Amino acid sequence: MAFARFVRRAIDDAREERGWTVTDLATHTGVGRSTVFRWLAGDWQDYPELAKVRGFCAALDLPVAAAFRALGLPDAGPVPRRRGAEEGPVEADVRVILDRLADPSVPAEEKHHIRDLLRYLARRPVRRAG
Predict the structure, then answer these.
(1) pLDDT digits over 54-87, tens only?
(2) Less crowded by CB within 10 Å, the N or C end of the chain?
(3) What is the largest distance, in Å, between two alpha-carbon atoms of the chain?
(4) Taking Cα atoms as reference points, which of 56, 49, 74 lies closest to residue 8?
(5) Domain spanning 2-76+88-123: CATH superfamily
(6) Measured at the alpha carbon of residue 110, what is the angle toward residues 112 and 18, in degrees to the nearest 5?
């Protein structure tokens, strides 16, 4: 049922942030409406087809590792770092934010606030010193 909750939150976020219906979601993700409804119901024989899960996550800007965790599968592991690069304070903060956005237990409203703040910061003009 964790995967069903993951899918429900993704659908709710897509509706709230993008105005997508389930039909729109199916079109953009390449996952059929009937498949989406089966995922919501927790109705599948084996694991959902992983290529469809990847397409679903890619279209919604969701980490695949979060979907895999919700399915009880080992995730893809840590995001590879550039060779010789240490994770600094900015990278650590960004990782925490990404983990929070990917966590199916974080409420959609909290994720919405995080995304709003990120959009604001991304569009804010840079003030130069001097």
Answers:
(1) 889 999 989 988 888 888 876 544 444 444 456 6
(2) C
(3) 64
(4) 56
(5) lambda repressor-like DNA-binding domains (1.10.260.40)
(6) 20
Higher local confidence (pLDDT), 102 or 20: 20
Is the entire prediction scored with pTM above 0.85?
A: no
Token couple for 84:
């010789």
Show the DSSP H helices in the chain as ranges: 2-18, 22-29, 33-41, 50-59, 64-71, 89-102, 108-123
Instruction: Please classify residue 9 by burial: count the beta carbons closer than 10 Å to its beta carbon, then call 0-12 exposed, 13-18 middle and 19+ buried.
Output: buried
Q: Comparing C-alpha atoms, which of 1, 28, 21, 6 is closest to residue 111?
A: 6
**43 Cα distance to chain centroid:** 21
% of the chain at pLDDT higher than 90: 28
Residue 114 contacts residue 101 (beta carbons within 8 Å): yes
Long-range pairs of 99-105 with CB within 8 A, sequence gap ≥ 24: 101/62, 101/63, 102/62, 102/63, 102/65, 102/66, 103/66, 104/2, 104/5, 104/6, 104/9, 104/66, 104/69, 104/70
What CA–CA distance (Å, rounded) separates 8 from 36? 9
